[in-house]
């Protein structure tokens, strides 16, 4: 909220060296430090960053690998000569801070806290929705209402793919790096894009459509991963009132069942 304090500079976020430092590196660095102190105080570093059991649904890796592919094919669209080298170095630091802060907060602390009370399917859904709603704060920084709402929907679906990345690898590092890589390409392209270069814009549009397809798949994948975790719990609830078969035996010539 402090970074998105009421202003009108959101459209220029990350477009210059000064903007990267002022709007990304400094505020996100401070946020990471504060959150680090909080996690240390809670003693949650281990449980917030590591899942002891990985998801066995390997087909769901299509979602994070699809996003990784998008990040890679988008790199050639960035005009690397349009801005000085220090811009891209500072942008790398800034997006890493963003990745660490937002992932440690949502796929880390929030996820662990929700697991104390909710089944995994609800943990997945609530954490993704809250991650999306977090981006409503961009409206305070000058983003338009419609673009902000679109970003909320996008972030919610992106959160599901990042959840899958954590569950497949068992580590928060994977979603942190994937998140940072995505932001680097998005900001870098928008800062150097030539709006008169229609072929490049067309390619970017096609990549964007592919991204939405991958993110839609990510929602399905995340839901399936979480649902599978809850299935044994649901089965236990379903048969909770039924005594186990071994509780009854037929003794000798007796014609009735007797409880052991």
Provide the descriptors you would attach to this structure in a database record.
single chain, 260 residues, mainly alpha, two-stranded antiparallel sheet, 68% helix, disordered C terminus
Annotate the secondary structure layout:
Elements: H1 17-42, H2 45-49, H3 62-74, H4 85-115, H5 120-134, H6 145-169, H7 173-192, H8 198-238, E1 248-249, E2 258-259
Antiparallel strand pairs: 1-2
Helix pairs in contact: 1-4, 3-7, 3-8, 4-5, 4-7, 5-6, 5-8, 6-7, 6-8
> Average pLDDT value?
87
SSE succession = HHHHHHHHEE
Range of strand content: under 5%
Helix content: 55-70%
The number of distinct β-strands equals: 2
User: Strand order of the main beta sheet, please?
Assistant: 1-2
Low-confidence stretches: 238-250, 254-260
Largest sheet: 2 strands, antiparallel
Number of helices: 8
The gross shape turns out to be globular
- C-alpha end-to-end distance: 63 Å
Instruction: Assign the structural class, choosing from mainly alpha, mainly beta, alpha/beta, alpha+beta, or little secondary structure.
Output: mainly alpha
Tell me the radius of gyration.
23 Å
Please sum up the structure shown.
The protein contains eight helices and two strands, in the order H-H-H-H-H-H-H-H-E-E. By secondary structure, the protein is mostly helical.
